[in-house]
Description:
- By secondary structure, the chain is α/β, with parallel strands linked by helices.
- The chain folds into two domains: 5-92 and 175-283 and 308-317, Rossmann fold (3-Layer(aba) Sandwich), CATH 3.40.50.300; 106-171, no CATH class.
- Helix content is 33%, strand content 23%.
- It has helices spanning 47-54, 82-88, 100-103, 110-121, 126-139, 145-148, 158-170, 188-205, 216-222, 240-245, 250-257, 297-301; strands at residues 5-16, 19-31, 36-40, 63-72, 75-76, 93-96, 176-180, 208-213, 225-230, 233-239, 307-308, 314-315.
- The strands form two sheets. It has an eight-stranded mixed beta sheet with strand order 6-7-8-3-9-10-12-11, sandwiched between helices. A four-stranded antiparallel beta sheet has the order 2-1-4-5, with helices on one face.
- It starts with a strand and ends in an 11-residue tail after the last strand.
- The structure holds iron/sulfur cluster (SF4) and magnesium ion.
- Magnesium ion binds at residues 43, 48.
Amino acid sequence: EQPVLQVDNLEVTFKTYGGTVQAVRGVSFNIMKGETLAIVGESGCGKSVTSSAIMGLIPSPPGKITNGQVMFNGRDLTGLAKNELRKIRGADISMIFQDPMTALNPTLKIGDQLIEGIMQHTSISTADAKKKAIEMMKLVGIPNPTERMKQYPHQFSGGMRQRIVIAIALMCEPELLIADEPTTALDVTIQAQILELFEEIQQKTGVAIILITHDLGVVAKIANRIAVMYAGKIVETGTKREIFYEPKHPYTQGLLNSVPRLDLKGKPLEPIEGTPPDLFAPPVGCPFTARCPHAMTVCEKIMPQQTALSQSHGVNCWLLDERAQR
Ligand code: SF4
Ligand code: MG
């Protein structure tokens, strides 16, 4: 089976007055139909830039994809013209952002916003588009869809608005859905409901989901596989089991230690000390060297390559690499 999306050695830079930021530094991953891949990391690690690059939404200039491929169903998206990308965006690949309010137009009825994209991307009739919109409203769990279609965004709660955004994203039956912090702006109860909705939709439609988040609780709930990003690189990747129960990269271990657990109630968090490296001049060796409790001489001199621990589990750390001379 061919992956829906295959990203190979993606590099993205941004030119600023202060120099060139190397935001994404050789990222590779793939995602299969019906799978949820979570890309996790602290803010500034390159996870959102990676998703923008997939969607062809890097503002250029100052941004630029300087290397790599983004293969979507066998087609390299990095080589496509803007109008070609526009055809794919919203139809074959959809994106959901953190704040549902900015994704909706406050002056347009929900029904019109639902059918806008599909009318643009296909030759469907207005009547059929409306039918489809009602179907999608039902799929995302909005009661009385026919009535609700006539209302405006402010007449819905935050959770309902995010459901509408998801319905809009699904109108053209995309093969890939990219959700960037989709539940961060919602309260905990609604967050759980939206995550359940993602799972339900995936079971019904087989859509592949890339979930971009810094929240390991969200990841634990719905991810199948996880890629941990640090300083523009993927430092560890594996199944949810492998990452949560057998984390091997010191950064992944640190992230997991900083999560409050029920059994540790009342104990203080253990955040990882220090800050990520400056991406204007990223270190030549392992980017985690300055914060790593296990750093060795080789770490700051040579970038660790990926060591495969299983078919699904890979880690970029000299601790796991037999070639390291300690
Ligand atoms: Fe730590 Fe070295 Fe592994 Fe980097 S390569 S995470 S510095 S042990
Ligand atoms: Mg972000």
